[in-house]
Amino acid sequence: MVSAKVISVLTGGEKDDDATVSFRFNGRCFNIHLSPTFFQNSPETTTLYLKYLQAIHPFGPGEFEGIHETDVYKWIIDLFEPLFVQLAPEPLPSFDPEKIRSGEAKSLLSEYLFPQTFGCRLEAVNEISIPRHVDNHGGLVPPRTWLDTDLLDAMEDWTCFVDPSEIEVYFQDAEDALDKIPRRVRVDLDGSGHMTTCFFKGFGTSAGDCPMSKEIKAYEKIHKANFGPDVRVGRLYGVAHDESSDATLGLLLAYIDHRTTLYDAVEDDTPLAMKQKWARQIEDTLKELHRVGVIWGDAKADNVIIDMENNVVITDFEGGHTDGWVDAEKAGTVEGDLQGFQNIMAFLFKHNPDDTSDGANS
């Protein structure tokens, strides 16, 4: 039998001890609400749950007192699996691996972003756990972003808007349709019938001057700069936009067939010449970005992709910073980008400390 897969975890943080863990099973979404207020005369269950809550905290280490987040998810799945099977006995056609392989069905992005959803909660009475189905909407609003009207109007001049129901999801292995979060999609960008492969980058719920708007503005400058292939940066092809709510759901970026990130690519035996090539590509690209007014922001080795031809591609222009790479007070500035660049060089040449001259002259 197909196992349920975790797709999101929300916790109350310091405000309360509540949590919602969302699972995908046979193409449906199950939002499991957890709270000590649901436990009656069950101190042992409450104590166990509070430990589990620490293990699944989204910003935690994924472990607490020897309890791993996977242990918690298994605990929830084991309790709720009979409900999963009762409410979603068979995969929906567009999530059925056999139908996808045969071409009988296609997975659409809209079905992942707005799935049929069930709300459930875990109750306990006298230490007996009771999984309960409580509603058919789940109590959570799917993530979406409301961009400023002026930005939306300006975008019409240089990019395209595509409804998620017109975006096909592509999985190399059809079995992944049952659990993977869509990243690789196929889109008819110009109405010609030609399907372009894109990378879908989704965002959480927000509005106005948000990470998505910052990234879109950066890609607008990149688009208008008309860079050649030597400027190693991604391109924005369009946005997934839900007309019914006038909400933007994510970016449709040029798909980069990549091997890994720079952070994971650097090994003890990585040839020095390869490191020097990567350093030059990053330096040259960053100079061009700054020339047209684009700030990288979260400059770090994890945001440098190494493609299949061993060339770099700089990604992620939504802002923010990562401690150890860019200081908080320098985030979002050219100075912060240069600090991040220098730290990338230090990381890249950490085993060759005397050989950074070819790529650290910004």
Question: Can you walk through the features of this model?
Answer:
By secondary structure, the protein is of the alpha+beta class. Strands 1, 2, 3, 4, 7 and 8 form a 6-stranded mixed beta sheet that branches. A 6-stranded mixed beta sheet has the order 10-15-16-13-12-11, with helices on one face. Strands 17-18-19 form a 3-stranded antiparallel beta sheet. A hairpin with a 2-residue loop joins β7 and β8. The relative contact order is 0.09. The C terminus is likely disordered.
Question: How are the elements arranged and paired?
Answer:
Layout: E1 5-11, E2 19-25, E3 28-34, E4 39-40, H1 43-55, E5 63-64, E6 67-68, H2 69-87, H3 97-102, H4 109-113, E7 117-125, E8 128-135, E9 145-146, H5 149-155, E10 160-162, E11 168-169, E12 184-188, E13 195-202, E14 206-207, H6 211-225, E15 236-242, E16 247-254, E17 258-261, H7 262-265, H8 272-291, E18 304-307, E19 312-314, H9 334-348
Parallel strand pairs: 3-7, 4-7, 9-14, 10-15
Antiparallel strand pairs: 1-2, 2-3, 5-6, 7-8, 11-12, 12-13, 13-16, 15-16, 17-18, 18-19
Helix pairs in contact: 8-9
Supply database-style keywords.
alpha+beta, six-stranded mixed sheet, 9 helices, 29% helix, globular
Distance between the termini: 56 Å
Q: What's the mean pLDDT score?
A: 90
Poorly predicted runs are 356-362
Characterize the main sheet: 6 strands, mixed
* Number of helical regions: 9
Number of strands: 19
| β-strand amount | 25-35%
Helix and strand sequence: EEEEHEEHHHEEEHEEEEEHEEEHHEEH
Shape: globular
Computed over alpha carbons, the radius of gyration is 23 Å
Q: Fraction of residues in helices?
A: 25-40%
Coarse structural class = alpha+beta
